[in-house]
Amino acid sequence: MIKQVENPILEIHDLTVSYDQSPVLWNVDLSLPAGKLIGILGPNGAGKSTLIKSVMGLVEPSSGYVKLFDQTLDAVRNRISYVPQRESVDWNFPASVLDVVLMGTYGKLGLFKRPGKKEKALALDCLEKVGMSAFVHRQISELSGGQQQRVFIARALAQEADLYLMDEPFAGVDMNTEAAIFKLLQEMSAGGKTVVVVHHDIYSAVNYFDWFIMLNLHLVASGPKNEVVTEELLRKTYGGKLNLLSKVSELIRQKEFNPLKG
Amino acid sequence: MSDFLYFFSFQDSSIAFVVMGITLLGIGSAFVGTFSFLDNKALLGDAISHAVFPGICLGFMLAGEKNPFYIVGGAFLSGALATFLSSWLKSNTKLSDDTIIAVILSVFFGIGIVFLTVIQKSGNPEMAGLNQFIFGNAIGIVERDLWVYGSLSILIISVIGFMLKEFQILVFNPEFGKAVGLPMNIIRFVFDVLLILAVVIGIQAIGVVLMAALLITPGTAARFWTDRLGILLGLASLFAILSGVFGTYISYLLPQMPTGPWVVVILSSIALISFLFAPKKGLVSRYFHRRSYLQKTQRDHVLKSIFKARELGQEGLTRAELLSLYPHQQSSIKNSIKGLEKEGLLFVNQSLIKLTDPGKYQARRVVRLHRLWESYLNEYMNIAPDHVHESAEKLEHLLTPDLEALLESRLNFPKLDPHQEQIPRDHDEL
Questions:
Q1: Region B327-339: what's the mean pLDDT?
Q2: d(Cα B312, Cα B310) in Å, to the nearest integer?
Q3: What is the ipTM of this complex?
Q4: Any CB–CB contact under 8 A between B189 and chain A?
Q5: How far apart are CA A26 and CA A14, in angstroms?
Q6: Is any Cβ of chain B less than 8 angstroms from the Cβ of A152?
Q7: Is A89 close to B223, i.e. CB distance below 8 A?
Q8: Above 60 in pLDDT, residue B240?
Q9: How does residue A262 score in pLDDT terms, banded at 50, 70 and 90?
Q10: Residue A249 binned pLDDT confidence (cut-offs 50, 70, 90)
Q11: Which of A93, A148, A151 should be substituted to probe chain B, the one whose Cβ sees the most B Cβ atoms within 10 Å?
């Protein structure tokens, strides 16, 4: 079940990506509508992070191409924002929360220019949106996992983009942070932004997203929630190896109505 | 002493020049080295500093004398070749980083020594000065050298100052930099060039063997004192300048004494002092912090013992009764009693040790936290009542008022703990 859309905000055409000759993504071909909250689901090692890294041009595809806003990546970089995995950086780096959020403005600033008053005001604004105003000058190594994640999201907000690609923003965060981040993502999507999120937990995903990409080295499904969140597609995605699947169908059965239908 | 005054009053313009040169060199190498230390690439600087040696010898052979342009040029080229080789080996073989570094360092330095032997056999009268490049001799610097090394240092300092934001993102999160469209490959290349240059400027004054120390140690030592990048760079520069100037002074006093080893001795002392005495991160400060924490926990325990005696209807405890509760800590308990008396938390009346009002308040709080935590463990984590005491004994000193409030509301303000003991509150009569 792969639903293609008219005027996609993101189009991935026959993308194949390999690490050390072994393909980690096979012929992914999909298109995404604007203004949706989109979840990328799949088991460990399914190529979820690889997919968004190749959209951001951080890994070279072996074949295929990516188009954003019907253009190449370099033409529209300022309209795209990226949140890498929290573990991908060394949080002992001597920087304050504000320093990290200011990095979100570096793309628009370009080389050599330093962030000024305008950028600082923007960064403070973004920190307020993620509820981290009290931590502006805090050293980043002193933050909890959930706070670090909020800082990364604030940095992405400071890019003032239209399309947001987030790699596991819910990984290792506490329940309060998860709820706060999700609320923020909903607001962004209601405000016309497109948000693509790599997510590992099918349980909460069903409640969070309105469009799903399901990956398991190849593209299993891409489409709106009510069309693709089916037992069959979930089983295909998770290969039947996980008994999570039966739990999800249990979850669906427990509802008095069918949550998969609109 | 008169030597000291003569040196540091800079009456001699050649000394002033050398000190200025070593200051610039210190700032430049501290800047570059701090970034490469933060990037966890400390060993690369060591490899490059050894790898410039064959280039120095080749430059000397070509020029036939100690011409700084030939020597700097040769050093730069062989440093660049080493840097290129190490990244080529990394992407084209499965060798680990430390293997690559070890191979590059020893192969290049070995070749350098071969060249040096060839030059020594040639009987060139100029070659005596070449040994200086191994351990450095700042006083041997002449004005012509100074112009070359000085301007290279200024170049390094200005490029880093100008590209602070770029290097910050290069070290912290290069992937993000690439994602926002910064040319990370070019920034990495510029940084590699700066690293090689930072080694090259130190070859005359510090020597190739020890230059890595001037790159890495200042940043490492400064890291103990601060969490801010700007202050870190400033402190690292200060440490590098101090050690550089002092090393030069020694070489001035004792002309046979190479500069590099003395710079390293001073730098290591600064690093050792930082490691031991820096506030917060230093060993001594952590020791005292821990000691005062342990002292506080023991005082809490003393207050608690008297509080419990009151619960059983006693007015207080005699000194002997109190000490008998802690048979293995007699002397420290005596200290705690003295300390608590000084703080006004307890007083002695007719040989009975009793709590003052602030003492009651503090004791009540510790007992309350202890019993609340026991209740929480029992109720929420299903731990049997006879297994909860140990954990509560530690947590009662740690829990903050915020957490206390949270515990109270989660447990719905319980009256009794799992051992059916009353949980004391401030409004209770006691």
A1: 83
A2: 5
A3: 0.83
A4: no
A5: 8
A6: no
A7: no
A8: yes
A9: very low
A10: very low
A11: A93
Pairing of strands B352-355, B346-349: antiparallel
Residue B56: what residue type?
Answer: I
We find that the CATH architecture of domain B357-430 is Orthogonal Bundle (1.10)
Residue boundaries of the structural domains of chain B: 2-280, 285-355, 357-430
What does the CA dihedral A6, A30, A203, A91 come to, rounded to 10 degrees?
A: -110
Domains of chain A, earliest start first? 10-87+163-254 (3.40.50.300)
pLDDT, position A20 = 63
The pLDDT, as a whole number, for residue A253 is 57
User: Residue A12 belongs to what H/E stretch?
Assistant: strand A10-19
Rounded distance between C-alpha atoms, residue B322 and residue B335, angstroms: 13
Is A78 in Cβ contact with B172 (below 8 Å)? no
Mean pLDDT check: name the lowest of A233-247, B171-185, B313-327: A233-247
CB-CB contact of A197 with A37 (8 Å): yes
Q: B258-294 burial, b if ≥16 CB within 10 A, otherwise e?
A: bbbbbbbebbeebbeebeeebeeebeeeeeeeeeeee
How remote is the C-alpha of A100 from its chain's centroid? 19
Q: Do B165 and A114 touch (CB under 8 A)?
A: yes
| CA nearest to A161, candidates A83, A99, A225 | A83
Distance between CA atoms of residues A115 and B124, nearest Å: 56
3-state secondary structure of B75: helix
CATH architecture under which domain B2-280 falls: Orthogonal Bundle (1.10)
Does the structure show a pLDDT above 70 at B429? Answer: no
* Burial category of B426 from C-beta neighbours within 10 Å (exposed 0-12, middle 13-18, buried 19 and up): exposed
User: Dihedral sign, CA of A168, A171, A175, A177?
Assistant: negative
Query: How many other CB atoms are there within 10 angstroms of residue A241's CB atom?
Result: 10
Same topology, domains B2-280 and B357-430? Answer is: no
- If you average pLDDT over residues B333-337, what whole number do you get? 84
Which residue shows structure tokens 């993504």?
A25
**Cα(A83)–Cα(A173) distance, rounded to whole angstroms?**
15
Instruction: State the CATH architecture for B285-355.
Output: Orthogonal Bundle (1.10)
Asked if B228 has any chain A CB less than 8 Å from its own CB, the reply is yes
